[in-house]
Design goal:
Number of strands: 12
Bound molecules: zinc ion
Helix content: 25-40%
Strand content: 15-25%
Number of helices: 11
CATH topology of the largest domain: Nucleotidyltransferase, domain 5
CATH class of the largest domain: Alpha Beta
CATH superfamily of the largest domain: ATPase, nucleotide binding domain
Number of domains: 2
Shape: globular
CATH architecture of the largest domain: 2-Layer Sandwich
């Protein structure tokens, strides 16, 4: 059974592995992105990592394909990076697909990392078997992926699924770095959630309860606090529930637009589980019409492997003659 080389390029690390058609990973390797060194340095590390995985596997099979998920907005046709945040400096404008295809001498498919994560969850993870799926990644920001009739919907310019910038308070809401007001990312993503808890208990109490400066407090700290109890635990539970509710308001809006069979929620914030998910479900129950109110909202199943599994699926669909989006290259 043919394996596919999958690569996941993030602002912190780069991962690569071979992925078979059952979604099983082998020969996994990873390295730091060291993004501050710039785009050419990142690209050199991606190529070196890819070659190392191929060497570990005993060389390149004749029918080897390469699938890539990367931070940034990716042109669905060309595989060029149309836009990337300063987390990947110089990445904007990079013809990533063409550069990798030239270096590796293999067919390469590229998409946004959250888009391939959604494809992974849809094919081998929590959304397996769903033809209509909304998949969210909630971490330091909020991204999304949409599957329509079994196909990854990337949008005209690769920017679909940007749930983080759906406004839940367009008049009096918090200002977002995108220029918008009331974007849900400013309420439900990790930094906002942690800041809300610090504001609720006060900065000095926050430092005392968790033994670290407020700026370093992460969602995982709050999840641990609400589990073990003690001072600040009730406020932590409330902050997690409230962040879930805020996300739920945005999800309820999207349920009316997309009517997916299921909503899969992954990423670092989602890994805390309850009461975050209870908050999402409560808001959807409260705000969505009966036609979409019962849509299951479930945790992602594949963790950080989802992007690699989805990237491999992307390449197979593009070049392998499998799946609904297969096409000639
Ligand atoms: Zn925004």
């Amino acid at each position: 059974m043919a394996a596919t080389l999958a690569i996941d390029i993030g602002g912190t690390k780069i991962a690569a592995a071979l992925v078979d058609e059952m979604g099983q990973l082998s020969h996994r390797r990873q390295c730091l992105t060291l993004a501050t060194e710039g785009a050419e340095a990142i690209l050199r590390r991606v190529i070196a990592l890819a070659r190392a995985v191929l060497a570990d596997a005993g060389g390149t099979a004749a029918d080897m394909l390469v699938g890539v998920g990367t931070g940034g907005q990716v042109d669905p046709e060309s595989g060029d990076i149309l836009f990337a945040t300063p987390l990947l400096p110089g990445w904007t404008g990079l013809p990533l697909r063409a550069r990798l295809a030239e270096a590796l001498r293999l067919p390469v498919a590229v998409a946004n990392d959250v888009h391939v994560m959604g494809l992974g969850e849809a094919t081998q993870g929590a959304g397996r078997g769903c033809r209509y799926l909304l998949c969210l990644a909630v971490g330091t920001g909020i991204g999304g992926a949409v599957l329509l009739d079994g196909e990854l919907y990337q949008g005209a310019a690769g920017a679909a699924g940007g749930l983080g910038h759906v406004s839940i308070d367009a008049i009096a809401g918090r200002r977002c770095n995108c220029g918008g007001v009331g974007c849900v990312e400013m309420y439900a993503a990790g930094p906002a959630l942690a800041a809300d808890w610090v504001a609720a208990v006060g900065a000095e109490a926050a430092r005392l309860y968790l033994g670290k400066p407020p700026a370093q407090i992460a969602v995982q700290d709050l999840a641990a606090l609400q589990t073990r109890g003690g001072p600040g635990a009730d406020a932590a539970r409330h902050a997690l529930d409230q962040a879930g509710r805020y996300l739920g308001y945005a999800v309820a809006s999207l349920l009316h637009v997309l009517n997916p069979e299921m909503v899969v929620v992954g990423g670092g914030v989602a890994q805390v589980g309850e009461p975050f998910f209870a908050g999402i479900r409560a808001a959807v129950q409260e705000r969505a019409l009966p036609s979409v109110r019962q849509t299951p909202i479930v945790p992602a199943a594949l963790g950080t492997d989802a992007a690699l599994i989805g990237a491999a699926e992307l390449a197979r669909r593009r070049y392998g003659g499998r799946g609904p989006t297969a096409r000639a290259s």
